[in-house]
Write a structure and sequence with these properties.
The structure is a homodimer. By secondary structure, the first copy, chain A, is of the alpha/beta class. The first copy, chain A, has three domains: 7-50, no CATH class; 61-157, 3-Layer(aba) Sandwich (Rossmann fold), CATH 3.40.50.2300; 164-295, Rossmann fold, CATH 3.40.50. Helices cover 44% and strands 14% of the residues of chain A. Chain A has helices at 7-14, 18-25, 33-46, 52-59, 75-90, 104-117, 132-140, 164-177, 193-208, 225-236, 250-262, 296-311; strands spanning 64-69, 94-99, 121-124, 145-148, 159-162, 183-186, 218-219, 244-247, 272-274, 291-293, 320-323, 326-328. The radius of gyration of chain A is 26 Å and the shape is elongated. Chain A binds a DNA duplex through helix 2 and helix 4.
DNA sequence: CTGAAAGCGCTTACAG
DNA sequence: CTGAAAGCGCTTACAG
């Protein structure tokens, strides 16, 4: 490369000022049509590259949006991210992604990086134990925050997520309606709002049906395929002999079904299993997974939309926005055999 | 927020110059120990946030690395990204991710964004049909490029990927050694280097074993679970009645096995299936998937390392670096029933 | 060990 | 419709 092409290079080569060139490249109506044409042609010919750092230093808008979730490799988040990506792309915002793996420290480092880069805003699924101060750090420095998937206690930010208690009750009620009475709950933790809501929804559904809640039927754990797979052993050796399992999510359910199959039982016939999220692979699994649609793409799209609106001065997105889950009945559940 | 805290705010509040403050915050030995202490304390107390755009404008290093792959939601890339992330994190580089979904245009937009942000370098798995000019664009503007997973014809950049021809031959030979003679190849395309190498490796292994290669036994297609699932119908209705399938990757294999199970056959017994990549879920599937380890984490780690070294002035990473794949034998393959 | 001053490449009033 | 000039917040020679 010979030497850096900048606005002034173009300006000099055409005998114009940098002001005019700057305006022309951003399609300002102030600039005469044919001046603009000439400028754009020359910029192209010289291989000019717009320096966003310089512009952003001047305007204090960066065109960058941060997104931080537990783990982008989890298909649940991946589906949300895909929706965020397409919404931000359409609005020519660059998005910077990070996993926090539920480390508050990693999350804080990322927020600081975003502040240093002058990010316009951040969409986050907060790490377990996120201190309100970390949120304040962002907001105090003019970087709006939108929450997805999880809430934070005592923090009133725009939040987009599924209605977990309602959704898990759908799954539980479905199993009850098939005649099941001994229903285990597999996966999840009380450390997140989601975890508490889902367990509460399960308990409430059982109580409404006058089924006694046995805490030993709850097998908490990570929310992964491997965790579901490994939980199968404990599940199958429960003294209560459950005939059905409400799983925290599709990953746990698919893992559990695989573990059940390894033990020589047939998931969907011998044991009914429900998932949660309705991931793309739920319908592909064998047996096809009965699950609860959790609106990942809705969550992503709405959260991105809310942030963009906020950047344009709107404020009416504050508060909790619940997506209403829907039941998806497939082959992994069947009537209780008598 | 009252007003922006900057270097000069700190400097004034302590009766020092911005030069000293700047040096102190970056731990320059030029600054007296107790001056540095005082400065750091004050910065902390004032809630100072370092402005990387300003710094980067001055130094022309941004601390940003771009990563672009086909689809981060594909676990194959996800596993690579995880390794890249941990390597870059350790070196305090921020990484910006993008999917190109094999759109050359989306990829070019991303490269331009990186240039505008002054990214220090980019790691990419190039989109199908990437023109050499797009690579040149990056390099001409001083942004080094490292390739992963796929090569580009006639481009000699540092490239890290598995040895596809060798790896797929491992899988094919494994099936041959079990007595299979009619072996289909499911998934993939000739449009990528990977696709061509894998098909070539399959063909070569058959030929070496004196098995006639029947092009109709190849069912090309996308590299997803859904594609594998949908291919099951075609696979099972092939007039040649293959007894085994070499799948493009684990996703296709898992989808195919599910499709085979839906049809009432038992994958691993009635039909032997091999995958490729050894994703985390390969060992969790039922039957556990026989597959080829493809070194995703090695690829990610080495590529990130190579870029970091290059940024520090090294040049010896150029050329092709092949990871040698390894066979992982599990339950999805079994001897041909006679 | 510390300071004064220039400059990175833009954009934005302001003037004409 | 176009230009001259200031300034965004840093870092880096250079001087002392």
């Amino acid at each position: 490369m010979a030497q850096k092409i900048k606005l002034s290079t173009i300006a000099e080569s055409l005998g114009l000022s940098t002001a005019t060139v700057s305006l022309a490249l951003r399609d300002s109506p102030l600039v005469a049509d044919n001046t603009r044409e000439k400028i754009k042609e020359r910029a192209q010919a010289l291989g000019y590259i717009y320096n966003r750092r310089a512009a952003s230093l001047r305007t204090s808008r960066s065109g960058i949006v941060g997104v931080v979730v537990h783990d982008i490799m989890n298909p649940f988040y991946a589906e949300i991210l895909r929706a965020i990506e397409s919404e931000l792309d359409r609005n020519r915002q660059t998005f910077i992604l990070s996993n926090h793996y539920d480390s508050v420290e990693k999350q804080r480092n990322f927020l600081e990086t975003l502040l240093q880069l002058g990010a316009d805003g951040v969409i986050m699924s907060p790490a377990i134990g996120t201190p309100p101060d970390d949120i304040r750090l962002a907001e105090d420095n003019n970087m709006p925050v939108i929450l997805i998937a999880r809430s934070i206690e005592n923090v009133t930010l725009p939040t987009y997520r599924g209605d977990d208690a309602y959704g898990i009750a759908l799954a539980t009620n479905h199993l009850i309606s098939l005649g099941h009475r001994c229903i285990a709950m597999i996966g999840g933790t009380d450390q997140t709002s989601t975890g508490r809501h889902r367990y509460a929804g399960y308990v409430e559904a059982l109580e409404k049906a006058n089924i006694e809640v046995d805490p030993k039927l709850r097998i908490p754990g990570p929310r992964t395929k491997r965790a579901g797979f490994e939980a199968a052993v404990n599940f199958l050796s429960l003294p209560q002999k459950p005939t059905a399992a409400v799983c925290w999510n599709d990953l746990v359910a698919i893992g559990l079904m695989s573990g059940i199959a390894r033990a020589g039982l047939v998931p969907g016939k011998d044991i009914s299993v429900t998932g949660y999220d309705d991931l793309e692979e739920a319908s592909i699994a064998t047996p096809a997974l009965t699950t609860v649609w959790n609106g990942q793409s809705e969550v992503g799209r709405m959260a991105a939309r809310a942030l963009l609106d906020k950047l344009n001065g709107s404020t009416d997105a504050d508060g909790l926005h619940l997506i209403r889950p829907e039941m998806r009945i497939r082959q992994s559940t069947s009537p209780l055999k008598s």
